[in-house]
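Work Package 3 (structural annotation) set out to generate three-dimensional models for the target panel prioritized at the project kickoff. During this period the team completed the workflow that converts sequence records into discrete structure tokens, so that structures can be stored uniformly alongside our sequence database. As a representative example, we reproduce one entry of 226 residues exactly as it appears in the project archive.
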Amino acid sequence: MIGKLSGRLDWRGSDQVLIDVRGVGYIVHVNDRTLAGLPSVGEAVSLYTDLLVREDLLQLFGFPTMLDKEWHKLLTTVQGVGAKAAMAIMGTLGADGVARALTLGDQRAIQAAPGVGPKLAQRVILELKSKAPGIMAMGANLAVAAEADDSVLEPIVPMAPRKMVAASAAQARAGFTADALSALLNLGYGQGEAAQAVSTIVAEQPEADTAALIRASLKLLAPKAR
């Protein structure tokens, strides 16, 4: 499986690009949003990829982030949504837009993608609304990981085993809470209402992970959906 390509951009088409990786050229299909964000021909480029395998066809689809790739893969699990339709939806809405449309049940937003009719848009909403928090949690975790890579490590202070377990659990809960809050803010909720919803769920479900917190908070915020 080819999960990522890094090389030189050799050619740009209307919906695909050619990436030279150490002398081997790969044709990668991209959506409008991804294409617009790519560098000029001859410059370095890196894309996460998903390989579509058929009896008579091998196609690579490229994405600027791992989160975009995961949303694309989730969209293709819906019957009737092939790679082309999923790329159209991602190209129209982007990762945040897809997350917002699914969680708020915005069928019109999904239908705005070229080639996606009302019946298919409705099916996407119905089948993926409950699965969206899982991908949103993944996105929050990826953002935290990226921030951690840029942070300065502090000296490690020895700690007693029991205190280590308690501290680890507390850190995990704090991480879940922060990630859930970040996901809600990305959906357009205000800081105050998002924080209140998450804190309410944390009090009711202290063992909930990020995805569970997001799912429960969205239910709590549902009457306030825009």
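The longest strand covers residues 44-54.
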